[in-house]
Amino acid sequence: MKRFEGKVAIVTGAGGGIGSAIARRLSSEGAFVIVTDVNVEAATQVASDIRSEGGNATVISADLSRKDACFSLVEQAFGLHNRVNILVNNAGINRRGNLLSLSDEDWDISFTVNLDSMFHLCRAVLPHMIVAGGGAIVNTASQWGLYPAPNHIAYNTTKAAVAAFTQNLARDYAPDKIRVNAVCPGEIHTPMLEAGVKRSGRTIADLDRLVPFGRIGKPEEVAALVAFLASDEAAFMCGSLVEVTGAQAVA
Ligand SMILES: NC(=O)c1ccc[n+]([C@@H]2O[C@H](COP(=O)([O-])OP(=O)(O)OC[C@H]3O[C@@H](n4cnc5c(N)ncnc54)[C@H](O)[C@@H]3O)[C@@H](O)[C@H]2O)c1
Questions:
Q1: For 44-79, what is each residue's pLDDT tens digit?
Q2: Which InterPro entries does this chain map to (predicted)?
Q3: How far apart are the first and last CA of the chain?
Q4: CATH class, 8-243 region
Q5: Domain locations in the chain?
């Protein structure tokens, strides 16, 4: 029996590095995956890869910076499957800058995409999970939300808020058997990290040297943790912030 046989999972940011690995992992273990991203082309490619591997995936494009899009995504998922067992809030953006160099717009959009989207999506999905007698929510925070790296005040603050949001939601809805946890990845090799490396003038090899384990992480290594937290094997995990960093404490 696969861990997610018969379960429906929404994965946001599923066109990206970590999100696509999560979508593939959940699908490989039996889930019906809703692959959602603002980048329709990327999401379509991921869903098509999943299907060619024998999995079940549907694309729903959504710009999660819009509240109505968050609610519509959940409604469409229910229209298709009549249930959502797992919500993975993974979509995110990373705007660089310190307090004085960051624009107002970068501060606002960071909160809109990284935090408000999960607020709206959780509000849309939670009533259904409560009626169903339980569910699992996994949020993607970051080690930078726990130990801030320099020059990323907006990103780091949103990720600290994601950690706090996760613990609050877990505390309030544990009696309803909704398990809410967050993963806090370190440096993971994805398009977001590639863009950051380019901006900073560093190389992947430079980042590898910063990690005590000797290399940066792979999206699949985050996906394995997300799958565990979403599964019944993590039945007593609720409100946990789990780091996956190769022992790197601060970037
Ligand atoms: N890569 C890392 O080193 C790292 C480390 C810690 C945390 N994270 C977090 O992991 C998550 C995934 O990041 P990634 O590295 O895979 O980046 P990525 O850029 O490859 O993927 C992010 C995805 O989110 C989507 N997205 C952005 N804005 C959106 C919006 N408004 N609506 C819908 N989708 C939107 C993008 O289109 C993209 O496909 C993010 O929350 C990120 O902050 C990444």
A1: 999 999 999 999 999 999 999 999 999 999 999 999
A2: NAD(P)-bd_dom_sf, Sc_DH/Rdtase_CS, SDR, SDR_fam
A3: 40
A4: alpha beta
A5: 8-243
